[in-house]
Structure formats: C-alpha cells, structure tokens
Amino acid sequence: MLFRVILDLVGELERHDRAMAARIRRSAIQAYSTSWDRTQQGRLEQLEIQLRRRLDKHQGSGRGRFRAS
C-alpha cells in the first residue's frame, strides 16, 4: 500500500519536477526491491514525506494538494 501511494505521488510530482520525481521513484524501487524490513519501510515513509512536502510547495501553482489514502 505504501509503495502504491508513493508511486501515485511521484506521478503527481512529475507534472512539476520530472527530474526529482525520477530520483524519488528510483529510491522507492530500490527500497521496495531489497529485503523488506523496518529500515526499508522507514525509507519509504521518508520518501512519502518528501513527496508530500514537494507537492505542497507546488500547491500555489493551480493544482490542489494531493492526498492519497
């Protein structure tokens, strides 16, 4: 579920910053594809926070805040 949320957020970020979206996507895939443990879950949680912050910065550009559940 967390990985899917991250991919959705990355898709939204691509509309504003393709390069950053690509870097975050690569990091998420790397974290998800390694041995799944608390460390990797923490990495994905941090990526989600980073994505939401970046999207919040673009909120004023006419796009609403993106919230996935």
Key traits:
single chain; 69 residues; mainly alpha; 3 helices
Outline:
This protein has helices at 2-13, 18-33, 38-57.
Summarize the topology.
Blueprint lengths: L1 H12 L4 H16 L4 H20 L12
Describe the protein in words.
The chain is an all-alpha fold. It has one domain (2-56). Helices cover 70% and strands 0% of the residues. It has three helices and no strands. Helix 1 (2-13) packs parallel to helix 3. The longest helix has 20 residues, at 38-57. The termini are close together. The mean pLDDT is 88.
In whole angstroms, how far apart are the ends? 9 Å
How much helix is in the residues? 55-70%
- Low confidence ranges: none
Strand content: under 5%
Class derived from helix and strand content: mainly alpha
Question: Roughly how many Å is the radius of gyration?
Answer: 12 Å
Shape: elongated
SSE succession: HHH
Mean pLDDT: 88
- Total helix count? 3
Largest sheet: none
Total strand count, please?
0
Tally of individual domains? 1
